[in-house]
Amino acid sequence: MDIEQLMPHVEALIFASDRPLTQIEMTEIMGQALETVIEAERIATCLEAIIEKYSADYYPFHLRETGGGYQFLTKKAFHKTVLQLSGEKHIKKLSAAAMETLSIIAYKQPITKSEIEYIRGVSADYSIQKLLEKELIVIAGRNENMIGKPLVYATSKGFMDYLGINSPSQLPQLKDITDVQIVMPTNAEEAKPADTPRVLESAPLKKAS
């Protein structure tokens, strides 16, 4: 099967999927469906051709690599129109506290609750719970090096899908959007001085003659 014949199958597969599909998944599924060996290079060629095809202004959507895979997404000019299908339920706004917490997690992940609270200066329990409910963050394990081995949090695949990125490394650099630096707490052992400073004795005052 040549590329022109293979392309519609790849398009149909991506279109029917409710999540981004990886190139490996497409290669395996196509091989099973067509009962033949499909080389990964041929799938890659098809993806390049499909991306180029739907980049034309004629189409209201395009193929994007997002969330670790490929998915058809509506172009920006049509976002407002599409959102009318689900109304406000589709884009519930986050509170300022939740947004701050999400930003800290996005740029400092994996991170513990206590580290988030150190940066924000207030409790993060409620914000973390809301972000977990909205599936914007996930529990990524535990910090084995900290006392009590606290849970650590990271952004979810859904968060990356929403922003149209494949990894946190694709987030805008902090230096490009703000001059404020996020300062992490210093480990107690690192903060301990190497030598205890000697107390300087004051020189005796001379009496006036």
Task: Walk me through this protein's architecture.
With 209 residues, the chain is of the alpha+beta class. It has 2 domains: 3-83, Arc Repressor Mutant, subunit A (Orthogonal Bundle); 92-184, Arc Repressor Mutant, subunit A. It has 10 helices and 5 strands. It has helices spanning 3-16, 23-34, 40-53, 79-83, 96-108, 113-120, 125-133, 157-163, 174-177, 188-191; strands spanning 61-66, 69-74, 111-112, 137-142, 151-155. The strands form 2 sheets. The protein has a 3-stranded antiparallel sheet. Strand 1 and strand 2 form a beta hairpin. Helix 1 packs across helix 3 (40-53) and helix 5 (96-108) packs across helix 7. The radius of gyration is 26 Å and the shape is elongated. The N and C termini lie far apart (110 Å). The relative contact order is 0.10. Residues 182-193 and 196-209 have low confidence and may be disordered.
CATH architecture of the largest domain: Orthogonal Bundle
- CATH homologous superfamily of the largest domain? Winged helix-like DNA-binding domain superfamily/Winged helix DNA-binding domain
CATH topology of the largest domain: Arc Repressor Mutant, subunit A
How many beta-strand runs? 5
How many structural units, i.e. domains? 2
- Tell me the span between the first and last alpha carbons: 110 Å
Strand order of the largest sheet: 3-5-4
Helix proportion:
40-55%
pLDDT averaged residue by residue: 81
Per DSSP, what share of the residues sits in E-state strands of 2 or more residues?
5-15%
Task: Report the biggest beta sheet as strand number plus sense, adding barrel if it closes.
Answer: 3 strands, antiparallel
Structural class: alpha+beta
CA radius of gyration: 26 Å
Overall form = elongated
